[in-house]
Amino acid sequence: MMETSMINEKKKVLFVNNNLVAGGVQRSLVNLIHQIKDEYEITLFVFNCSGDYAKLIPPEVKVIEASPFLKLLGMSQAQTKKMGIIFYVARAACALYTKIFSNHFPLSFLVSTQKKLSGFDVAISFLHNENEKILYGGCNEFVLKRVKAKQRITFIHCDILNNGTNTARNRSIYKYFDKIAAVSEGCRRNFIKAVPELEEKTYCVYNCHNFSEYYDKSIINPIEYPLDCLNIVTVARLSPEKGIIRGISIIKRLIKENYRIRWHIIGGGPQRSEIEKEILNNNLSEHIILYGNQENPYRYIKNADVFLLPSIHEAAPMVFEEAKFLGVPIITTNTISAREMIREGKEGIVSGNNEEELYNSLRRVVDQPAILQKYKEYLRIQNFSNETAIKQFSNLI
């Protein structure tokens, strides 16, 4: 009888993340939890348990929030005002120290304020380390220093060779994990190039998706775009690596050549004011529309002619699968996972990672609309599932 109960006992899995605000990593985490919640006993430890996705955590998942000081790693400076002057000043001091020196000491100090957790079969840091001059992250340090578990795993959601995280400090931290999970084969390859000695314990685990949610939200007041032009949609954080500025330059060229185009951009971020100025300075306000952050981006994707992601570097954008599932072809640049995630010539175009080739790709589909129609017909008959991702995760732990 005892042997049977031991066999049926669920593995105890701890996930650690900084917060639950709207973002690709957080979205991936929530989707994964929903897919595996019946198979494992899940505990979620978040530094700051707030954000749009907090309400999406299943009730059967135990959620633990951090100590007040560790909570600072999941908050912006503005958010700490609600906690009082002590925490506002503490975070500001940590941010200043990080900018002058590095985030090594602030991360170690803030992590040390949390009491240790134990009793887990697997502890997973779901957020990779960031640039050492940014007060961000800490999940890897927390899992290694404050959690007792039989197995420790960390996830890589970035292109380590191109996003400023390939440092001696970060590389040394990864060596202490039992396994490393990269969210695409491209991410895995670049991680192994950075830390070749960890190849044998580095695996690929794809992001999970909530396809039923994508569909349900896409039919809630879907945007009806004008029919007399090519409607391009982008859902992305407005930050330099997303390539929005060069996208504006491309649209300007096409408009000057009398092509009828509207570019609909959903998302916010640190580059918004610069992007707004660029649009105004080039008299493109009628052709490029910024919608800001939207709780339901799928209603904007659904009726678009093409999805554009002109990124300079990317990891494994979840929005690729979202757009494909909604039947919208993709044009993107050749970042590390693009050819892995998009069947070129069937689901979209993977352009060279430069302005000229991206311009040529967009001009091609404007001149030949039958290309996009062919891609749409192909996407319409595809089956989408999380089967591979779930199998990869199961094998991982």
Describe it.
- This protein is of the alpha/beta class.
- The chain has 2 domains: 10-205, Rossmann fold; 211-380, Glycogen Phosphorylase B (Rossmann fold, 3-Layer(aba) Sandwich).
- The protein has 17 helices and 13 strands.
- The chain has helices spanning 2-8, 24-36, 68-71, 85-100, 104-112, 139-146, 168-174, 185-194, 211-218, 244-256, 272-281, 298-301, 318-325, 338-341, 355-367, 369-380, 387-396; strands spanning 12-19, 41-48, 62-65, 117-125, 147-156, 179-182, 202-204, 230-235, 261-266, 288-292, 306-309, 330-333, 348-351.
- Strand 9, helix 11 and strand 10 (288-292) form a beta-alpha-beta unit.
- Helix 5 crosses helix 6 (139-146), helix 10 crosses helix 15 and helix 15 packs across helix 16 (369-380).
- The model is unreliable at 1-5 (pLDDT under 50).
Domain tally: 2
**Residue ranges: pLDDT <50 for 5 or more in a row?**
1-5
Report how far the terminal alpha carbons are from each other.
26 Å
- Residues in helix, %: 25-40%
Strand content: 15-25%
Q: Return the CATH topology of the largest domain.
A: Rossmann fold
Biggest sheet character: 7 strands, parallel
Topology:
Blueprint: H1 2-8, E1 12-19, H2 24-36, E2 41-48, E3 62-65, H3 68-71, H4 85-100, H5 104-112, E4 117-125, H6 139-146, E5 147-156, H7 168-174, E6 179-182, H8 185-194, E7 202-204, H9 211-218, E8 230-235, H10 244-256, E9 261-266, H11 272-281, E10 288-292, H12 298-301, E11 306-309, H13 318-325, E12 330-333, H14 338-341, E13 348-351, H15 355-367, H16 369-380, H17 387-396
Parallel strand pairs: 1-2, 1-4, 2-3, 4-5, 5-6, 6-7, 8-9, 8-11, 9-10, 11-12, 12-13
Helix pairs in contact: 5-6, 10-15, 15-16
